[in-house]
Amino acid sequence: MTALISLSRAIDRVNELIGKAVAWLILASIVISATNAVSRKAFSLSSNAWLEAQWYLFSAAFLLASAWTLMSNEHVRVDLLYSRMKRRGQIYVDIIGTVLFLLPFCVIVVWLSWPVFMAKLASGETSNNTGGLVLWPAWMLIPIGYTSLGLQGISELIKRIAWLRGDLPDPVLVADADAAEL
Q: Do the beta carbons of residue 67 and residue 102 sit within 8 Å?
């Protein structure tokens, strides 16, 4: 179990670094959006490339930070019953949800998006918009984002099993404490 806990910590570190780095892409997206809006209104100048760059940056932030969001326990959860359960029951729900839903979904998305990404990369296809950007970087974000989310799911699974075995403190309380420090 020690090796798995070390793997979990390594996955957490990588996804936290990626998440914190790509969070800055939101600021870049806002700056591009504001600059484009001002240049369009003040000078009647606009660029599809800048609009698409803004979209790419937002997509990158969303897809690449999703693993960090899961690790930080900041993901959306519908907890009509979950919040009424004892902690042990919540952990079992997390494990079942991860194994039956999160991990298979991540595998399917990566499996289906990889050939599309490779085709876009090979063709050098660009946006249909005049002055638009190449498409492969946006498509590349999908398998990368879902791979990191799947890896984080494995990390969360390891932490929950370790908690059940008494090898680690409660992973949710640890994530909440870490988030409070930010």
A: no
Amino acid at 30: I
Domain boundaries, the chain: 2-181
- The Cα–Cα gap between 106 and 47 comes to 34
Rg (CA), the chain: 20
Phi and psi dihedrals of 132, rounded to 5? Answer: -70, 170
Is residue 99 classed as helix, strand or coil in its secondary structure? Answer: helix
Q: How many helices (H) and strands (E) does the chain have?
A: 7, 0
Please give the Cα distance from 97 to 157 (Å, whole number).
Answer: 10
Contact in structure between 149 and 66 (CB atoms under 8 Å): yes
CA torsion sign, 20 to 25 to 30 to 35?
A: positive
Phi, psi of 141 (to 5 degrees): -65, -30
Please write the tens of the pLDDT for every residue from 23-75.
899 999 999 989 888 888 888 887 788 888 888 999 999 999 999 999 998 87
Q: Which residue has the tokens 């008494």?
A: 166
